[in-house]
Design brief:
There is one protein chain. By secondary structure, the protein is an alpha+beta fold. It contains 3 helices and 6 strands. The chain has a 6-stranded antiparallel beta sheet.
């Protein structure tokens, strides 16, 4: 870690490039470690065991992410999906651009009540200005609990 002139270690945010761009030759896991997952993803226990240019996979515990009836909260599924889709879109962003979410849609078809849910994110469209990703979220039995589509806009950054 670099230090500032007063010998105070610089924060991780000071270590990133202006657009949070992928550094040439950087793997997905290196990108995530450098960029960080964000406070909400950390609070919800989201982890990324796989992160490549072709797909991203993340897990989230059911415990702590439920609604009063003991089912995973629909918003928790959306947080998992948006974490996957937005991080993946930024990982693939053209130089000088950052991905910002412009639309998200979720359809919940089953409810997990225990264990871990897994989101698998695959790009549907990778354009010059827009990306679309589908995230399939399943429970430990492989049952699909939620299908989410997220659209991100590539915005030019300074």
């Amino acid at each position: 870690m670099t230090s500032t002139p007063d010998s105070t270690p610089a924060s991780p945010a000071d270590q990133t490039n202006p657009a949070d761009e992928r550094i040439a030759g950087e793997t997905g896991q290196e990108y995530l470690a450098r960029r960080g997952l964000g406070a909400l993803a950390v609070r919800m226990g989201i982890e990324f065991p796989e992160f490549t240019p072709s797909r991203a996979v993340a897990t989230m515990p059911v415990e702590g992410n439920t609604q009063p009836m003991g089912l995973v909260h629909g918003g928790a599924y959306v947080v998992l999906a948006e974490s996957l889709g937005s991080m993946h879109a930024n990982f693939l962003a053209p130089q000088g651009h950052a991905a910002v979410g412009v639309d998200i849609n979720a359809t919940h078809t089953a409810s997990a009540t225990a264990g871990i849910v897994t989101g698998v994110c695959t790009p549907i469209h990778l354009g010059r200005t827009l990306t679309v990703h589908e995230i399939a979220i399943t429970d430990e039995r492989g049952r699909r609990c939620s299908t989410v589509r997220i659209t991100n806009l590539y915005k030019r950054v300074a």
